[in-house]
Amino acid sequence: MKIEQGTAFETVGEHEIDFSVAQLVESSDSFSRWFVSQANPAIELGEYIGGVIHASYAGEGESDIEFGFLTETGDRYIMLVENKIDADKQPNQIERYYNRGQFRVEHDDWDSYTVCLLAPERYVSEEDETGFDSIIYYEDVLEQLGNLTYDGGEFLQSVFEAALTKSRASTTADATDTLRAIENRFQNETDIPHLERDPEYTGYNKRTSFKSTHPEHHDAIRYDIFVGEIGDAGRTTVRLQIKSIDGLTEEERDSLKSIAPDNKEILSSYKWRLDRKVNIASKKVGHEAVTRDGSYDTYVDAIVDELLTLTDTFHPIYVGESI
User: Fold this and answer.
1) Residues in the chain where the model's pLDDT stays below 70
2) Half-sphere exposure (CA, 13 Å, Cβ side) for 177?
3) Are 148 and 190 part of one and the same domain?
């Protein structure tokens, strides 16, 4: 490998991510607070206590990373993190994380704990979404690093970029055909002439996204599709996002978020997370469920219908309440 300006990574594994996250939590208060807010938004963080990488327990395996914090009320809160790029989980791995958290509470004077998965978006399964207390995506960490004033931020961005490249090259099922079918059908059926594919996701085989060219619609809003698993037994997530783009200030982001609460009852089936920076609303479409009940001929029909509902609802709202 050639040595050029900066550092190139031939490969990045889970150990490198473990150490990178531990360094960030240890040395950056703003990252530490953001990281905890993603794991448990209800925690009012006081101060960082410490952390351990690869914490072993007799008979219960090991946690990839554990971090301890004091809350503002003085409670001792511990965060147990499972980090995965593309490797299969071990049998009963999620259950053993909860066993370790409970052991910490019962034997080590911790008051509460959270079990969190740290992984690329494409890795996360429906079992993960229901099994872990929370999920932090590599993509969100990478975006947060771009917003962080931190001496090593650029280097650590390259670490996460390399890990995501490894994840995209893994054997995870390719959803390209499903995405093209969704895109073509949506663009044929939408009555909004201003929606176009976001070129950022050209070449991604699990995700596509649409943005608006309407002059009154903010450039940061995205109507996003992520295919978690393909096939009749798979699932897809439809999302409303606020992307980090050049020129977007935190005041503008907050203003864009503030538009959503007044209108979220329109899409009551969506999960709303206004504490998050990017994915503020999402709905999962289970492929098997929508075809089994006869509502749609194919799951692609159901996904497109949901995307049409999302855009028909929020595109005129963001045009009418532009900032």
Assistant:
1) 1-10, 168-173, 321-323
2) 6
3) no
Residue 193 CB partners (closer than 8 Å, separation 6+) = none
What pLDDT does residue 293 have? 80
Q: What is the pLDDT of residue 169?
A: 61
Please check whether residues 148 and 206 belong to one and the same domain.
no
Q: What is the pLDDT of residue 59?
A: 73
Instruction: Report strand pairing: 112-119 vs 45-57.
Output: unpaired
DSSP letter at 200 equals G
Instruction: Please tell me the predicted confidence (pLDDT) of residue 221.
Output: 95
What is the pTM (predicted TM-score) of this model?
A: 0.68
- Contact yes or no for 282/240 (Cβ under 8 A): yes
Of 115, 146, 168, which residue constitutes the final position of a domain? 168
**How many Cβ atoms from other residues are within 10 Å of residue 162's Cβ?**
19
> Strand 235-242 to strand 271-272: parallel, antiparallel, or no bridges (unpaired)?
unpaired
Alpha carbon separation from 309 to 132, 142, 239, 312 (Å, rounded): 29, 30, 11, 5
Q: State the Cα–Cα distance between residues 172 and 146, nearest whole angstrom.
A: 27
pLDDT in tens, 222-277: 999 988 778 888 889 999 998 878 888 888 988 998 887 777 788 888 988 887 77
Nearest to 135 by CA among 82, 178, 213, 183: 82
CA–CA gap between residue 152 and residue 145 (Å, rounded): 9
**Claim to verify: residue 28 and residue 121 sit in the same structural domain:** yes
Q: What does the chain come to in residues?
A: 323
Which helix (DSSP H) or strand (DSSP E) does residue 288 occupy?
A: helix 287-292
Q: Which domain holds residue 232?
A: 176-320
